[in-house]
Amino acid sequence: MTDFYAVIGNPIAHSKSPWIHAEFSRQTGQDMQYEAILAPVDAFAATVAVFRERGGKGMNVTVPFKLEACKISRRLTRRADVAQAVNTLVFSADGILGDNTDGAGLVRDIMINLEFPLAGKRILLMGAGGAARGVVLPLLEHSPSVLTIANRTKQKAHLLQQQFSRYGNIVSGDYADLGGEKFDLVINATSASLKGRVPPLPAGIFADESMAYDMMYGDGRTPFLQFAKQQGASRLTDGIGMLVEQAAESFFLWRGIRPETDRVIRGLRNL
Ligand code: NDP
């Protein structure tokens, strides 16, 4: 019998998740279908309920519903509970389980696909919204020497620092506070790239052999990556690998099988 899954968001037409999960199910021989569902901004819970009644087994959740998804979950995995944001729902007779696979997807892309170890590294995370919140704990679990969180609204960066400080060495501030510092890995978790902007980073923040990682994906030439190239970052990467890896984590949660991601990442880059 075919099992039904979906990604829910607003907007959703741009989502690559249906293509990714179709590749995963073909590759692993799973009998499943995966669609994209546009939910009205004021009707997230009702739209999820309708999908469940239709026999849906699980959903991915994207902007702007990750916090609401947390609230409708009866149980949360530890990583979703710590992040207080959910991007994966699993439906069962027990109710809804909420998980967050964004951070695991990011860390797997950086450490395994890109072969960039995090232990002892100086990491700068730009942004303090839903995406940043989901990746702080998984980054800290790999023992960077420091994780600096910088955000336009400084107070939100401070709040994240307070929330996560017991898990590792975190510093927070705004972009003006970064003058004179150098980082081995700079991750852009802001939505500035969507508007063709780059957060106001001071010059000279990229250390030798550093990596610039933009969670936004596209043609691999986001405004942040162009800035990083001019500033001498050694390695530049967009968020396609993270997107595929977080999807693979969700797929594993639903189906108990881990799909191969290499070919899917390459396929997505060539679409
Ligand atoms: P949110 O709306 O929750 O947060 C947006 C963040 O961007 C805030 O920290 C905001 O700062 C900051 N920001 C927005 N505009 C600017 C600007 N012009 N200059 C500086 N900072 C700015 O968004 P999300 O966290 O959900 O998503 C962030 C990005 O991550 C998006 O591009 C999204 O597509 C991407 N993403 C990619 C994933 C992947 O798998 N590759 C997974 C999840 C997200 P302030 O607090 O001051 O408003």
From TrEMBL:
Superkingdom of source: Bacteria
GO cellular component: cytosol
Catalytic center residues: 66
GO biological process: amino acid biosynthetic process; aromatic amino acid family biosynthetic process; chorismate biosynthetic process; shikimate metabolic process
Record field: catalytic activity: shikimate + NADP(+) = 3-dehydroshikimate + NADPH + H(+)
Molecular function as annotated in GO: NADP binding; shikimate 3-dehydrogenase (NADP+) activity
Keywords associated with the record: Amino-acid biosynthesis, Aromatic amino acid biosynthesis, NADP, Oxidoreductase
Keyword NADP: yes
Chain ranges of the Shikimate dehydrogenase substrate binding N-terminal domain: 7-89
Residues binding NADP(+), per UniProt: 127-131, 151-156, 215, 239
Any one Pfam family match given in the protein's UniProt record, by short name: SDH_C
Positions of shikimate binding: 15-17, 62, 87, 102, 217, 246
Residue ranges constituting the Quinate/shikimate 5-dehydrogenase/glutamyl-tRNA reductase domain according to the UniProt record: 118-193
Function: Involved in the biosynthesis of the chorismate, which leads to the biosynthesis of aromatic amino acids. Catalyzes the reversible NADPH linked reduction of 3-dehydroshikimate (DHSA) to yield shikimate (SA).
Subunit (UniProt): Homodimer.
HAMAP family: Shikimate_DH_AroE
Protein name: Shikimate dehydrogenase (NADP(+))
Species of origin: Nitrosospira lacus
Top-level taxonomy: Bacteria, Pseudomonadati, Pseudomonadota, Betaproteobacteria, Nitrosomonadales
